[in-house]
Write a structure and sequence with these properties.
mainly alpha, globular, 50% helix, membrane, cytoplasmic vesicle, phosphatidylinositol-4,5-bisphosphate binding, ENTH domain-containing protein, two-stranded antiparallel ribbon, 386 residues
Length: 386
């Protein structure tokens, strides 16, 4: 009770100081600063959803509100020595990345630093598990923000790039995205932090993020394999290395979800939706590397049984290849020994890598749900399907 009263007094004191000392900044907005302070209050028993959603609503309304939000949040984070305020600030920042305005992708490194965060001015031995959790969470969000910034800068030049250069760009970004997943999988609450309800609420966001990144990696690999005969041997080798890394990350993510289920994270019982990589695609990639040729679309790289192309067409009863009436068309399989080239309508030269997003950054548990209750476990889907 004393801690709750003390925290409420500190929050009120912060509001008074904000009104008296913050007017000198060009980014000062009294309503936004009030919402940020209330969204990051000292009470660890709940998350102030109302003021949190107000912050997101301002940003979604206009990107002009993003800087005032970041300024108010950075002031709050730099001044606090309380783990509850720091964690709520990180959760608020995590949700900002989901706001649908382009300016969110240009933040770059976070405007505050919690690398050496300590609870209390002299540190608190009893709170070290919370301090470690906050430092790991901050490190991930800082790197994610930097990644999104670099990705947005690169995408500005995508429209004039060729298909081959786009494949190389995808490979480069996958190599940057995979370490980001490794960093996320290091965020694990220990000891006292692992049973705290506020920490478990943050873990719901983190698990959702792991699904998003893992799925993005798998989907992008599948997309690259669909264009693999447009790549060089070097790019094919990089792709194979990325697949091997992704396979290992699948195992690590599965262990991570087991850990999260054991401490009561509800979302860890779900299964990420990803595209599977067929064994045939992997075999074709290995054959391409073994062949030692850089030629695009060379027929000799295909397995013998695939030398003949199977083409699905819309045919009418008069054997014409085109029909304006789709209701009268019949699907016919035609086998030919001739080499024909068909355009892939799904892969355009200006295709861009999608940004990472968190669909429900501040999703809360149902009040009737026991966060420590039993959760049905599910195996993570295999990255490579046979």
């Amino acid at each position: 009770m004393w801690r709750r009263v003390s925290g409420a007094f500190k929050d009120e004191n912060s509001l008074i100081k904000a009104r008296l000392t913050s007017r000198r900044s060009t980014f000062w907005n009294p309503d936004i600063q009030k919402a940020v302070i209330k969204a990051t209050n000292h009470d660890e028993s709940y998350v102030d959803i109302h003021h949190t959603q107000c912050v997101y609503a301002w940003i979604n309304k206009s990107e002009e509100y993003l800087r005032p939000v970041l300024w108010a949040l950075s002031v709050r984070m730099e001044r606090t020595h309380n783990w509850v305020v720091a964690l709520k600030g990180l959760m608020l920042m995590h949700g900002v990345f989901c706001c649908k305005v382009p300016a969110v992708q240009t933040i770059g490194r976070l405007p505050f630093d919690l690398t050496d965060f300590k609870h209390g001015h002299s540190g608190n031995v009893k709170r070290w598990s919370f301090e470690a959790f906050i430092r790991d969470y901050y490190a991930f969000l800082d790197q994610k923000s930097a990644f999104l910034y670099l990705l947005s800068q690169q995408q500005k030049d995508n429209q004039e790039r060729s298909e081959k250069s786009l494949i190389l760009q995808d490979l480069v970004w996958l190599q940057k995205l995979q370490p980001l997943l490794d960093m996320l999988l290091q965020i694990k609450p220990r000891y006292a932090a692992s049973t705290n309800l506020l920490v478990l609420e943050a873990m719901e966001c983190i698990v959702a993020e792991s699904f998003d990144i893992y799925g993005h990696i798998c989907n992008r690999i599948v997309s690259i394999l669909g264009r693999i005969y447009s790549t060089s041997i070097t790019e094919a080798k990089i792709t194979l290395f990325i697949i091997e890394k992704a396979t290992d990350q699948q195992k690590q993510l599965s262990k991570y979800l087991d850990f999260c289920r054991n401490i009561g994270v509800v979302k860890a019982s779900e299964r990420p939706k990803v595209e599977h990589i067929s064994r045939a695609d992997i075999q074709n990639l290995e054959n391409l590397i073994k062949s030692g040729s850089n030629q695009s679309g060379n027929k000799q790289f295909l397995p013998k049984e695939e030398q003949k192309y199977v083409i699905m067409e819309e045919k009418t009863t008069t054997e014409t290849h085109e029909s304006n009436d789709s209701r009268s068309g019949l699907r016919t399989t035609i086998t030919t020994d001739e080499w024909e080239v068909f355009e892939d309508d799904e892969l355009q030269s200006d295709q861009q890598l999608e940004l990472i997003s968190l669909d429900s950054p501040m999703e809360t548990r149902n009040n009737n749900t026991n966060p420590f209750g039993y959760c049905n476990t599910h195996e993570l889907p295999d990255l490579i399907s046979f």
